[in-house]
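Supplementary Methods, section 5.1.

A reviewer requested that the exact input to the structure prediction be made available. We therefore reproduce it here, unchanged from the version used in the analyses.
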Amino acid sequence: MKHSELKAKALKNKKVKAEYDALEPEFKLLRELLKARQRAGLSQAEVAERMGTKPPAVTRLESSLSSGKHSPSLATIKKYADALDCHLEIKVVANN
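The structure derived from this sequence is encoded token-by-token as follows.
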């Protein structure tokens, strides 16, 4: 079974779908961080060097947003963005 097929099957379960949808803000942030790193043309090791840390820390940061095992601090995400010559924009949006 392909990943896409397994995902489609799992998302038919209402509880699984609700949990998956609840993670969308983290997935969106991860996609944005990865796109920014790709646009900058930097490897994880290069980002780590610019952040003053080791490559495994950047790997953990990027994977933590998709795994839900750890929520990085805003300070850490800001440091990552700074290393990419980017900035963060955070806003609160009303639920409709």
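The chain has six helices and no strands. These observations are discussed further in the main text.
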